[in-house]
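Re-run requested by the PI after the first attempt was lost when the workstation crashed. Everything re-entered from the original request form. Ligand of interest: zinc ion.
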Amino acid sequence: MQDNERENVRKVIEYFNRSGVVLTEEEKKRIIVADYGWGKFELLGASYLDFVNNERYSVREIVLFPGQSTSEHCHPSIGQLLGKTETARCQYGTIYAYMEGEPTSNPKGKPPEGLEKFYTVWHEIVMKPGDQLTVPTGTRHWYQAGDEGAVFIEYASTLRDEYDVHNLPWLNDNCVEK
Ligand code: ZN
């Protein structure tokens, strides 16, 4: 692990502490810090830890740093396998969630600079601790944290990240459909 990655993991643990999420030492070692291959982690990225992922369901904890965005993506069905349905519940900070639907005028979120054209869904839902949102199978969505960063838990059907369809072209190598 590189120094900056180690530093980011340390910050992620701080956010979990602040949000009241309790992690074991073993879980702290499994935190994943992902920059989606763009190299500007402070703008585009997400950190997460999977508590459970089996053939029927999953639970993932996610940290977004202040102003950080995920990529816009969806979870399509693959053959007989129904794509992931996810429920995101805010535990700390503010989350600006965007999904397909009536575009919100003057949305609060801003795509990472230079990647604007890859952000296409603008129906905004603002989530504070205790608010939750369900994203149906195959619906495009992305998340951005407010100024204090955000911690949220995601209850979902089985995680199959390798089948996620992203708008960012370099993330789609493994996708079976576009
Ligand atoms: Zn998703």
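Saved to the shared folder this time. The first helix runs from residue 3 to 19.
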